[in-house]
């Protein structure tokens, strides 16, 4: 890619690879496939949405516990790539397994989805931490944003192929059932994810590390304890993590629960898939815009903008009544979801010590994942108690507001001071 090094380009290409999982498994095809299976089993829409939320809460809790420990071990020379490869393999393998689970077994679907999600999100801990190894601080905002932009563009290709197969099956134009077509989409996702991850394995290497010690696991726990003990030394880092904990909760919940929420509103699966495709197309250039504007106005300012947009999203979601309303909501999300995630990643990378990147990105993960436990639980519980999914989405406003307030106290990285 013009203007980027081989290491930067290979790192960014992994966003192109794994975003197919995010779109097809997390957001689009799998939730619809699961919702259909649950409906066939006699489970109500609100309950099946709640069970999906609880499942997301369970696997994010598991990874939140493991993240800092694995990250601390991965700071040793040569460990980062090994941990990345393990979770990557788990994620791709479990995605393949989804294609072979009967469509009427919704419980087994959720279990396999948990394994796939553990792999995908676990690999991202170490992928994100590689940002400090492949570029310099002044380029991090742009490189991180370009990665998200590539992810949105790249994910649309397997998504379109998958949706074409599903629609043709629904119209009985090919000899496949809609369920079989969905399972083929899972295979397409795994293949795409695997092939375009090859440059990451070939060209991205751990540059910042600490030397190995005789008892690395024991030493890692000691270092982790020391980090907690010296927490005041990293005040800016942990203030940012607290802010991130709150605002990213809402972002992740909106992304992972949007399709199930749209189904509960009575929007057809065809309309949902079209809307999701349009969201990816619109999100790609906006992620790049966030990266460029962050160079002019600072990443912190653009994070405020993104949080503000999501507050509007949550308020607007409460009043949704039609497909047009859902279109408007999706386009609002598209303007900011990539930007807020990309700039959070690069902002954090500028605050941390580079040779402890995995340990600190482990904390980045634990704060993000514990937030992702709270959001789906809140949405799921509210949906069940009120029988209205829109009440759960509306309740996320408070999380964005808290995140915005705490972010005010986080200093601007030296490389961004105007």
TrEMBL record:
The record, for SUPFAM superfamilies, names: MFS general substrate transporter
The positions making up the signal sequence are: none
Q: What is this protein called?
A: MFS transporter
Q: Which GO terms describe its cellular component?
A: plasma membrane
User: For this UniProt entry, which segments traverse the membrane?
Assistant: 12-34, 54-76, 83-101, 107-127, 148-169, 181-201, 236-260, 272-290, 302-320, 326-348, 360-379, 391-410
Q: Which UniProt keywords apply?
A: Membrane, Transmembrane, Transmembrane helix, Transport
Highest taxon of source: Bacteria
Q: Which residues form the Major facilitator superfamily (MFS) profile domain?
A: 236-418
Q: How does it sit in the membrane?
A: Multi-pass membrane protein
Where does the protein end up? Cell membrane
Q: Matching Pfam families, A to Z? A: ATG22
Annotated GO molecular function terms are: transmembrane transporter activity
Q: Which InterPro entries match?
A: Atg22-like (IPR024671), ATG22/LtaA_families (IPR050495), MFS_dom (IPR020846), MFS_trans_sf (IPR036259)
């Amino acid at each position: 890619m013009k203007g980027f090094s081989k290491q930067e380009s290979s790192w960014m290409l992994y966003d192109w690879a794994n975003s197919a999982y995010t779109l097809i498994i997390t957001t689009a095809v799998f939730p619809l496939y699961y919702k259909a299976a649950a409906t066939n089993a006699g489970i109500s829409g609100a309950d099946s949405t709640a069970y999906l939320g609880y499942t997301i809460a369970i696997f994010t809790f598991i990874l939140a516990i493991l993240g800092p420990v694995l990250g601390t071990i991965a700071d040793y020379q040569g460990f980062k790539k090994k941990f990345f490869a393990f979770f990557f393999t788990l994620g791709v393998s479990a995605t393949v397994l989804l294609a072979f689970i009967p469509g009427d077994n919704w419980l087994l679907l959720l279990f396999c989805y948990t394994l796939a999600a553990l792999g995908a999100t676990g690999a991202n801990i170490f992928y994100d931490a590689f940002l400090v190894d492949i570029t310099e601080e002044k380029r991090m905002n742009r490189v991180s944003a370009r990665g998200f932009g590539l992810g949105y563009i790249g994910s649309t290709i397997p998504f379109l192929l998958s949706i074409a197969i599903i629609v043709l099956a629904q119209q009985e134009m090919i000899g496949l059932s809609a369920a079989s077509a969905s399972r083929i989409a899972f295979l397409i996702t795994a293949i795409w994810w695997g092939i375009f991850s090859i440059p990451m394995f070939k060209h991205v290497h751990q540059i910042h590390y600490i030397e190995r010690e005789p008892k690395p696991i024991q030493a890692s726990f000691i270092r982790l304890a020391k980090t907690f003990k010296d927490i005041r030394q990293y005040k800016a880092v942990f203030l940012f993590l607290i802010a991130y904990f709150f605002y990213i909760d809402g972002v992740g919940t909106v992304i992972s629960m949007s399709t199930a929420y749209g189904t509960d509103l009575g929007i057809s699966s065809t309309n949902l898939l079209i809307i999701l495709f349009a969201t990816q197309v619109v999100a790609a250039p906006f992620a790049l815009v966030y990266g460029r504007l962050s160079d002019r106005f600072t990443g912190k300012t653009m994070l405020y903008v993104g949080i503000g947009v999501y507050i509007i999203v949550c308020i607007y979601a409460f009043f949704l009544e039609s497909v047009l309303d859902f279109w408007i909501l999706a386009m609002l999300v598209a303007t900011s979801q990539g930007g807020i995630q990309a700039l959070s990643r690069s902002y954090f990378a500028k605050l941390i010590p580079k040779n402890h990147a995995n340990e600190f990105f482990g904390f980045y993960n634990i704060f993000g994942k514990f937030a992702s436990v709270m959001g789906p639980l809140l949405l799921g519980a509210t949906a069940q108690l009120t029988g209205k999914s829109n009440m759960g989405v509306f309740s996320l406003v408070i999380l964005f507001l808290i995140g915005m307030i705490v972010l005010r106290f986080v200093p601007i990285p030296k490389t961004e001071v105007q």
